[in-house]
Automatic annotation (TrEMBL):
It comes from the Eukaryota. Residues 323-356 have a biased composition (Polar residues). SUPFAM superfamilies: Six-hairpin glycosidases. Residues 680-1098 form the Glycosyl hydrolase family 95 catalytic domain. Residues 23-264 form the Rhodopsin domain. This is Glycoside hydrolase family 95. Residues 1100-1161 form the Alpha fucosidase A-like C-terminal domain. The chain crosses the membrane at residues 12-29, 96-114, 126-148, 168-194, 206-230, 242-263.
Length: 1193
């Protein structure tokens, strides 16, 4: 197995540290043999405990620990896994002890050193007192480590969970913080009085004092980083590696002074007034302890045979070695000569008892040496060593973080139900880019060493408005109907294609703005790489280390400011450089960079590609760069930034879709970017995240914890595992959250006259033409985008859909008149940004379907049902209902006693023409009297009657009268020979029994006619067809699979719905959790449908009942809860279940009204601890507690 970057660096630095200590031992042996002092022994002990500590880290990493092993996780562990976790936990306990002993050994090294430099001074007592307190502090920490969790075996206990007090060891942290830092402060304070009194220039005192103070600052900063790291596990990863680095520096600092003489003969520190030279004579005498005194200016007894003095000399303390050019200080070396004593003479000189020689030290400088001078000169001679050694103080606390950080094998760096995160950049847009958006602007972040930000603005499509009304359609309509009635199916379909389809086959298609490319000059091989997206705040980011510098990037989409923004940072001042430029595949008119007027920007003007006289869509985008203290230049279309620490980027793009002139839309770009730049990134970020959080935190679900640490893996690995392992419930929750994030990012209601809804790709695309044109496909896909809006408390995100319907309405009325000769409005199965309702193309099975408006208008009706907004119902929804109803009153014709549609189809499906029709045996899509059409018309006219009742419209109103007359003329659903709902007017043979569209079951979901609570007969028939579809292999696209989740939930079959959840995970999500049509091509509807389907299992309200836990998959999700879900009637519902059984719920009435409740399969329940049956009358603000009958709250 390849070593991790952490292992590589840790053991490399360890190897270098061992070399340093071995060099110290060699240097000391060369000087004093084995006459070691206390700091020499403790230096070796540091090596021993450093080795043991790193070994413990390795064992912890290999085996894991009991940190985060809850009882639920523990229950799933094998005996072998438990044994490994127990062993790792024992290693963690040992690691704590080795770590504490290591840092106290480092303290001992410094204290022995201070003891030498303070010999015969008043500071000596302070050193001793400090040493005593330090020893007591050591035992205090060790006692806490062994006593904070008793009995001691609970420290490594795995099952049952021993509790946070044992695994998280907060007491260890707090005790170590207090005792470690307090003793460090005492140690640091020892040399300060000596520094103040020593005869040095003020400049040198300030320099050394500043170094001391900076050491204190580093120590405190290390502590603060540790505290922050404990709060943020991402910070622990960074602190771990820095802990190793700082420990390494500490080892070097403690030992560097001792090995210095091996590499240089230069002096370390000189006296401020002494004179020295190579011609000095050296004489020596001995003290009573057998140390020869080397005197300066005396006899030459210590000269070598050449007559020159020996170059190797030392004193008893041997921390500082001097050569013959060194300062004139007291030097002591071992000797068998006569001992010495100090006399109290006038000059305080030393006298040899044996020789009677005066001046054991003879100084040949112009100042006299007094005792206090000797104190300070001794301190001065070793002060440089003190400075080197002091660096080790800042490293100690991080070793502890390294232990716990490495041991956290169970707890993920990110909440597995909230964050998408990765250890490598995206290499394919559809497989890995992470999406953000503010409803109008979208951005996808690749996260490479050189970043690509793919940019979208939702009005950048492929061209101007078109008139695609077929000129011969109105005349051909009655002829085609006659052919279908006569059974000439193929002939009728061919006539439709020749006369009723547009000459321009397709609506306009969704494009993209382009890419904003950032070249940071970094290679692809980055250390400590992380990439993430927060589904609860809507921001995304990247972090990595390169060249020893940490780099971070954050991207946000600001709805309040109307811009996208990014911040790039480096941990080292001035280390951040970049070159930035726009790119696009085609149709760039202007692309220029500028620093004029202090505004650093790149501006690109693009086009949809048509000649200017054909009114193409034109758009302008600008990126602005702010980098305080950096050099910024512009060349052609590139902005270059060098020497930055922080770079802020702001982006906006506008088009002529919303503005009448280039001056207008470019002025809007300038206005937004001026405001954003003036506001600054931090405030803009604060407002943006607060806005997103306000929406995204309204609702939440918890489907229980994933076993075996699955939720701690990077998202791409979890997706790969979920292909075959369905136990990662937190991944399901993450996809639920992701769907809500992407709806908020792609669809927002602003003050603009026109907001566009989420299309087939939401708001994200990386090409000039998106897959399937990125259109508003309204025969299922656009509607699926918004199923989750009301139920997950994001109802306002649906308003842009109504803007599109408003745009399309006059076009639909024109199409109805010119193509069908009818009043009212209609759409076929696609719209573009212009609201073009024409038939899509020459693909027969998707062309002639005139029911788009009938489906879309249900979202207006549901908007009222969720909000109770009568003003909206009166001014928006009801008039639109009337327009849609008006068209079908005209368009339908009488056939076999019913008002039927035709030519039409069951979206994108085909049947085999029977033998009595022509052409027999052929696969054809078109017919008359399509059951799905009948279901949609039923809902339209039922909604007209419902709305008229709510609005108290007179029974004599002509529109209401027509609706009441028309409703009974709509053919009801028919049941086939196998007990299934029929898809066509007759029981035709299916060409594809597993077809992805489940159109004939519209009334199961999203409609309600087939609900078990409305019509049990039709419900059972719907289930038969649904089961047959699934058995044949339906759900062949991501969106189809998620529709089936919703279908089974509506049938109250939670286990089957969960099987469809598993089926979706098995094939369709990409590494970035995007839904795909076929496993490869991004199509967002399935993401939104997934979120809706999970919600439908927990709460339904379509059948005029607030139904709590209607389809709970109890075996797969035995425990969980949901908060903030919304039921029709504007009731907010929280619910919790345990062991697969309803536990409790709270229902809050936002506006008041009649509440009909149902729990599970019709279980009896209590309301506010009282038995209750029948409707409950609520007032605005009422809060009701719901509980099972066997539980009183």
């Amino acid at each position: 197995m390849m070593a991790t970057p952490f292992q590589t660096e840790a053991w490399t630095e360890y190897g270098l540290g061992v070399l340093i200590i071995l060099l110290r031992i060699f240097a000391r042996w060369k000087i004093v043999g084995f006459n070691w002092q206390g700091d020499d022994y403790f230096a070796v002990l540091c090596l021993v405990f450093w080795t043991l500590e790193l070994c413990m880290l390795e064992l912890i990493g290999q085996n894991g620990t009991n940190i985060g092993i809850t009882d639920e996780i523990g229950a799933a562990l094998t005996p072998e896994e438990i044994a490994k976790f127990e062993f790792g936990s024992k290693c963690l306990l040992a690691g704590w002890n080795f770590y504490v002993t290591l840092i106290w050994c480092l303290k001992a090294c410094i204290l022995f050193f201070f003891s030498r430099i303070t010999l015969a001074t008043r500071q000596q007592k302070i050193v001793k007192w400090t040493a005593g307190l330090t020893i007591l502090a050591y035992f205090g920490v060790v006692i806490v480590i062994w006593s904070h969790c008793t009995p001691v075996q609970r420290n490594w206990q795995v099952v049952p969970y021993p509790g946070d007090e044992c695994t998280l060891a907060v007491a260890n942290y707090l005790t170590l913080v207090v005792l470690n830092i307090s003793t460090d402060m005492l140690i640091v304070s020892i040399p300060l009085p000596l520094l103040w009194a020593v005869k040095l220039s003020l400049k040198r005192k300030l320099a050394i004092g500043l170094l001391l103070c900076s050491g204190i600052f580093v120590m405190i900063a290390a502590l603060l980083r540790c505290i922050l790291s404990l709060k943020d596990i991402e910070g622990i990863n960074v602190s771990t590696i820095w802990a190793i680095r700082e420990t390494f520096v500490g080892i070097i600092a403690v030992n560097a002074a001792c090995i210095r003489p091996l590499f240089s003969s230069a002096h370390w520190l000189r006296s401020s007034k002494g004179s020295s030279g190579a011609n000095r004579k050296y004489t020596g005498s001995s003290d009573k302890y057998g140390h020869q005194l080397v005197t300066i200016g005396g006899g030459g007894q210590n000269a070598d045979r050449s007559g020159f003095p020996s170059k190797r000399r030392y004193n008893k303390y041997n921390m500082t070695e001097l050569d013959n050019n060194s300062s004139e200080e007291q030097i002591v070396k071992p000797s068998d000569s006569t001992p010495w004593s100090q006399n109290g003479g006038r000059n305080g000189s030393l006298t040899s008892k044996s020789s009677g020689q005066q001046g054991g030290i003879v100084v040949t400088t112009t100042y006299e040496v007094r005792p206090e001078n000797r104190e300070h000169r001794r301190s001065l001679s070793s002060l440089h060593d003190l400075m080197n050694s002091f660096a080790m103080h800042s490293s100690r606390f991080f070793v502890m973080v390294a232990l716990t950080g490495t041991a956290s094998n169970v707890l993920a760096a990110f909440d597995g139900s909230r964050f998408l995160w990765y250890k490598s950049p995206s290499t394919e847009w559809e497989q890995g880019a992470l999406p953000i958006g503010n409803g109008r602007l979208g951005g996808t972040i690749w996260g490479g060493a050189n970043e690509t930000l793919t940019l979208n603005e939702n009005s950048i499509w492929s061209g101007p408005i078109q008139d695609r009304t077929p000129p011969n359609a109105l005349a051909a309509l009655p002829v085609t109907r006659e052919l279908f009635v006569a059974g000439k199916i193929t002939e009728g379909g061919q006539l439709v294609l020749r006369n009723m389809t547009p000459t321009e086959k397709s609506e306009r298609q969704f494009g993209y703005f382009g890419n904003l490319n950032f070249d940071f000059g970094h290679p692809n091989d980055l250390d400590n790489y992380i990439r993430w997206l927060d589904t609860r705040k809507g921001n995304t980011g990247v972090g990595y280390t390169y060249g020893g510098v940490n780099y971070t990037r954050e991207f946000i989409a600001s709805y309040p400011a109307g811009v996208l923004a990014a911040r790039f940072k480096s941990s080292k001042e001035g280390a951040l450089n970049l070159s930035a430029s726009f790119s696009r595949l085609s149709n760039i008119l202007v692309n220029v960079a500028s620093t004029a007027g202090g505004v650093n920007s790149i501006t690109m003007l693009g086009s949809s590609g048509q000649p200017l006289e054909e009114n193409p869509i034109l758009f302008t985008g600008q990126a602005r760069f702010i980098a305080p203290g950096a050099d910024i230049s512009a060349t052609d279309s590139t902005v270059s930034v060098t020497g930055a620490t922080i770079i802020d980027v702001f982006f906006d793009a506008e088009s002529n879709y919303r503005y009448s002139s280039q001056g207008d839309w470019e002025a809007e770009v300038k206005r937004k970017l001026d405001a954003a730049s003036s506001q600054g990134y931090e405030r803009l970020r604060e407002d943006a995240l607060a806005d997103s959080t306000r929406l995204l935190e309204r609702a939440s679900i918890d489907l229980g914890k994933s076993p075996d640490g699955l939720a701690s893996f990077p998202t791409d690995k979890r997706v790969a595992l979920a292909r075959n392992d369905s136990r990662d419930n937190e991944l399901t929750t993450l996809v639920w959250n992701y769907g809500r994030h992407m709806l908020v990012a792609a669809s927002r209601n602003t003050e603009a006259d026109i907001d566009l809804p989420a299309n087939l790709q939401g708001i994200w695309n990386n090409k000039t033409t998106a897959a399937w044109g990125g259109k508003y496909t309204i025969n299922i896909n656009t509607e699926m985008n918004y199923w989750l809006a009301g139920q997950t408390n994001l109802i306002e995100t649906q308003v842009p859909l109504f803007d599109l319907m408003k745009i399309a309405n006059p076009r639909g009325k024109e199409m109805a008149k010119r193509m069908y000769g009818c009043d009212g409005t209609m759409f076929h199965h696609n719209l573009d940004l212009w609201g073009d309702p024409g038939a899509t193309d020459n693909y027969t099975s998707s062309t002639m379907w005139p029911m788009g408006a009938a489906w879309l208008v249900q979202h207006m009706v549901d908007h009222y049902r969720f909000t109770g907004d009568k003003d909206f119902l009166s001014k928006v929804a009801y008039p639109y209902l009337i327009d849609v109803a008006m068209f079908y009153e005209c368009y339908t014709f009488e056939h076999e006693g019913w008002r039927v549609t035709g030519p039409s189809l069951s979206p994108e499906n085909n049947f085999i023409v029977p033998g009595n029709f022509s052409v027999a045996g052929r696969a054809e899509p078109m017919d008359i009297d399509i059951p799905m059409d009948n279901q949609l018309m039923h809902d339209v006219f039922s909604a007209v009657i419902e709305a008229a009742d709510i609005l108290e419209i007179s029974d004599s109103d002509p529109d209401l009268i027509k609706a009441k007359e028309f409703l009974p003329l709509i053919k009801p659903a028919q049941i086939g020979s196998k007990g299934q709902i029929l898809e066509w007017r007759y029981e035709y043979q299916e060409k594809d029994a597993a077809h992805r569209h489940i159109s004939p079951l519209y009334s199961l979901h999203p409609g309600k006619q087939f609900s078990p609570l409305v019509n049990s007969t039709l419900s059972k028939a719907a289930e038969v067809l649904l089961d047959r579809r699934r058995a044949a292999g339906s759900g062949s696209t991501g969106w189809s699979r998620t529709w089936m989740i919703n279908m089974y939930a509506r049938a109250f079959r939670g286990a089957d719905a969960w099987e469809e959840v598993k089926g979706w995970f098995a094939t369709f999500p990409t590494a970035n959790l995007w839904n795909t049509d076929n496993g490869k091509t991004f199509q967002i509807d399935g993401n939104y449908g997934f979120t809706s389907g999970i919600t439908e299992m927990l709460l339904q309200s379509h059948a005029d009942v607030v139904h709590i836990l209607p389809a709970l998959p109890a075996e797969a999700v035995p425990n969980g809860k949901a908060t903030g879900l919304v039921a029709r009637g504007n009731f907010v519902v929280d619910v919790e279940w345990k062991d697969g059984v309803f536990k409790s719920a709270k229902v809050v009435a936002r506006i008041g009204g009649e509440l009909r409740l149902r729990v599970g399969n019709g279980e009896v329940f209590l309301v506010d601890n009282e038995a209750w049956s029948g409707p409950i009358q609520t007032a605005a603000g009422d809060s009701l507690r719901i509980a099972p009958v066997n539980k009183v709250e």
